[in-house]
Amino acid sequence: MIRPKLVLRLIHINWVLVVHGLDEIVLKTHLFRPIRYLAFITPSYWLKPKADTRGVRIRRALEDLGPIYVKFGQALSTRKDLLPDDISDELVKLQDRVPPFANEIARSIIETELGMSITEAFAEFDPTPLASASVAQVHTAVLHTGENVIVKVLRPDIEDRIRSDIGLLYELARFAERFWSDARRLRAIDVVAEFERSTLDELDLVREAANAAKLRRNFENSELIYIPEVHWSLTRKKVMVMERIYGIPVGEIEQLKAAGADFKALAERGVEIFFTQVFRDNFFHADMHPGNIFVDVPDKYIAVDFGIVGSLSLSDQRYLAENFLAFFNRDYRKVAEMHVESGWVPSTTRIEEFESAIRSVCEPIFEKPLKDISFGQLLLRLFQTARRFDMHVQPQLVLLQKTLLNIEGLGRQLYPELDLWQTAKPFLEKWFHERLSPKAKINKIIKQFPAFAEQFPEIPSLLYKALDNAANSQQHAEVQQRELTLLRQQMDNNHKTTVWAMIISAIIISAAVLFQ
Length: 516
Known about the structure:
Low-confidence stretches: none
Number of strands: 11
Strand content: 5-15%
C-alpha cells in the first residue's frame, strides 16, 4: 500500500501540472478525476500567464517538481527529432539555466565545507552563478595563485528531495510489476534501483572529482577531448573546485559556425570518444548532454560535470562489442544467437524467427545518414520486437543506452549527414584485433608471465598442500562413510528390537485376554 507521504507527493505533482496549465494531462488521471473541479476555483488557475507557450509551461513545471524531473527534461532535450521544436527549444534551458539558489546560501555552504571564509579560499569570487542545473550551480572564482577556476556547489536539501521522488518511483514500479506484465519484463524495480545508485552518486562531489581525475588520465594529451584539472585542496562532498575552461557550448550551432568549427570531424570524434571510453577504458561519461560539452574550435571537445559515470562487467563488454560488430556486418543470425547465449531472451526462442525480426528492424536504417532515420519509428519497432520475444531489460546497461542516445542526438545536431555505423565499425574492428586476436592473447600471456614466474617456486608446496588436502578429504569422507554404515546398522538393530518387543507385547496381551 502506498504510504500517505507518497500520496501527498502524487497530489503535489498533479497540482503543479494544473498550476502551469497542463490540465489536459492532469484531468485525465484517475487520482484527480474526483476533485478536478477544484482546479477551477484556485487563484493560480485563473491568474497564470495565458501568454506562455506550452514549452515554457512544461519547462517551468519540471523546474518546480525538482531534480529528477529536470533530468528527465534534459534527456528529452537531446532528442529534438522526437519533440516539437517549441518544446525541445525550451527544454534545452534545463541543461544549465535552471533557476539558481541565493548567493548567500551558496557562500554559506562553501565556507562550511571548506572551513574557511570565501576571501581566505579565493582572491575573487563571482556571486552571480555562471550556470545552474538540477543538482548544483557553478560560480567563477580566482585562486590566490592567480588561476581561474569554477566552484561547483550542491543545492541545499537536494538529497531529501531526490530520495522522496525515488521512493515514489519505487512504489510506482512495484505497482506496475504487480499489475502489468510488461513492467516485469522491463524489470522496472531494477531499473529504478540503477537510477537511484547513479543519481545519489552524483550528490558526492568528491566522487565526481575522482571521476574527473580518472577521465583526465585516460585522455591525457588526447587530440579528441580535454578534461579540466581538479583542485583537490578545495574539494569537499558539497563543493568542488576545478580549472575553468573556455569553449563554445556544443549546442550553440550558430556560434560554432561563426567560429569555423569542423562539424563533420566533431560528429565523428564524438562517436570515437564514446566507443573509446566504453571499450578501451571501460569507464564512460554517462551524462553527455549538450550542457556538459563544449568545443575548442575547430574540432576538439571539452567535457565537464562527471557526477554520473558508467562501467561494464567484462562479459557485458565482450557481448556488446560482438553484438555491435555483428550488427554493423549485418550478421543478424549471430546477433540473435548471442542474445540467447547471454540470457537476454529466453533459451526457447527460435533463432531463425528472432533473426528475421532483427533484420526487419535494422535493414531499413543501414546506409542512411542520421537525418534520414526516424528515431521514433525505430524505437517503436524495437519495443515491439522486445515484447514479442520476451526480451528483458538489462538494468546494468541503462546508463550505456542513455549515453548512446545522447551521443546519437549530439551527432544529429552537429552533422546530420553522419553515417553512424561506418564511423563506429573501424573502431570496433580495431578493438577486436587488439584484444581477441591470437597475437593479442600471446601478448597477454607474456605480460602475465612475470607474475606467474614469481609464483613458480611456490608451486611444489602448493601442489603438496592440494594433494594433502585431497587425501585428508578422502580420509574424512571414508570416516564419515563408516560412521554412516554403523549408524544404519544401529538403526536396523533398533528396528528389529522394536518389532520383537511389539510381538512379545501382543502375545502377552493375547494370553491375558484368553486366560481372563
